[in-house]
Amino acid sequence: MSNPYDPNQQVNANFPVNPIPGQGAQPQYVIATTPKSKAIAAILALFLGGLGIHNFYIGRNLVGVLQLVFFLAGGLIVIPLIFVGGIGFLLPIAFWIWILVEFVLILLGVPPFDRDSRGLPLE
Fold first, then answer.
1. What is the pLDDT along the chain (123 residues), one digit of tens a residue?
2. CA torsion 77→82→88→89, rounded to 10°?
3. What gap in Å lies between CA 48 and CA 42, rounded to an integer?
4. For residue 87, with 0-12 CB atoms within 10 Å meaning exposed, 13-18 middle and 19 or more buried, which class applies?
5. Beta bridge partners of 27
6. How far apart are the first and last CA of the chain?
7. Domain extents for the chain?
8. CA 15, CA 26: separation in Å to the nearest integer?
């Protein structure tokens, strides 16, 4: 029985190998990925858009983190502004308009909402 980890082992010529010197013959693996669903992204945007879950789903993590932070910090910022300045209600309205626009862009397939972070089109 041969050692499968032996770097000097002969490899079948039809089997792809790792071309890095000193690494020996190693198989090349292709990771099969399935495309993300446009319907799931839209549903997440509609129901959990304030938390940025739809952006995490399609791989736009920075925007997802920003939306999550705005959502969590929104109560701390908006409530005092409503009582003090009276214009604090405009911030959550602008935030939810942002979410609604992203929901529509996902449904229409407008870039960058037509692909995930790997460049695969949403199906």
1. 556 555 565 555 555 555 555 565 556 666 667 889 999 999 999 999 999 999 999 999 999 999 999 888 876 777 777 676 666 667 778 888 999 999 999 999 999 999 999 889 999
2. 120
3. 10
4. exposed
5. 17
6. 47
7. 38-108
8. 9
Q: pTM, whole model, 2 decimals?
A: 0.69
Tokens of 9: 């082992």
By CB atoms closer than 10 A (0-12, 13-18, 19+), residue 54 is: buried
The Cα–Cα gap between 10 and 110 comes to 50
* Residue 73 dihedral angles phi and psi, to the nearest 5°: -85, -15
Residue entry with tokens 């939810």: 96
Contacts of 94 (CB under 8 A, 6+ apart): none
Contact between residue 14 and residue 62 where contact means Cβ atoms under 8 Å apart: no
Q: Are 36 and 88 in contact (CB under 8 A)?
A: no
